[in-house]
Design goal:
The structure is a single chain. This protein is an all-beta fold. The protein has a five-stranded mixed β-sheet with strand order 3-9-8-5-6, with no helix packed on it. A four-stranded mixed β-sheet has the order 2-1-4-7, with no helix packed on it. Strand 1 and strand 2 form a beta hairpin. The chain is elongated. The chain starts with about 35 loop residues before the first strand and ends with a strand.
Length: about 110
């Protein structure tokens, strides 16, 4: 006589693989440059915000003669490129005297 044995195995589905996400935040300190240029043209200052290091110099390059830069109690006239050195950290807002809506900012770090 022949004996037949049978085994039935039921397999359950495997769980879906999981993904672990890690978030890493890094901070890179970049020194502000020692010099920068602001172009005065077409009724605007470009860039509108400029960062420089303490002791840094900013030059305003006037492309039109109808503008001034009024900053920190000084008036810089549009007679060509005009520079100013910043010896203290802080934020310096400025504008054009004849066109007060023209505004800019120097951030000294």
């Amino acid at each position: 006589s022949t004996v037949v044995t049978s085994t039935v195995v039921t397999l359950a589905p495997l769980p879906a693989p999981t993904t672990t996400v890690a978030t890493v935040t890094t901070t890179t300190l970049v020194s502000a440059p020692m010099t920068g240029t602001v172009v005065v043209d077409n009724f605007s200052f470009s860039p509108g915000v400029l960062r420089v290091a303490v002791g840094g110099t900013v030059t305003w390059d006037f492309r039109e003669t109808v503008h001034t830069v009024e900053i920190d109690g000084r008036v810089l006239r549009s007679t060509g490129p005009t520079s100013m050195t910043f010896s203290a950290a802080g934020t310096y807002n400025y504008n054009c005297g004849p066109h007060p809506s023209m505004q800019g900012r120097i951030v000294v770090e």
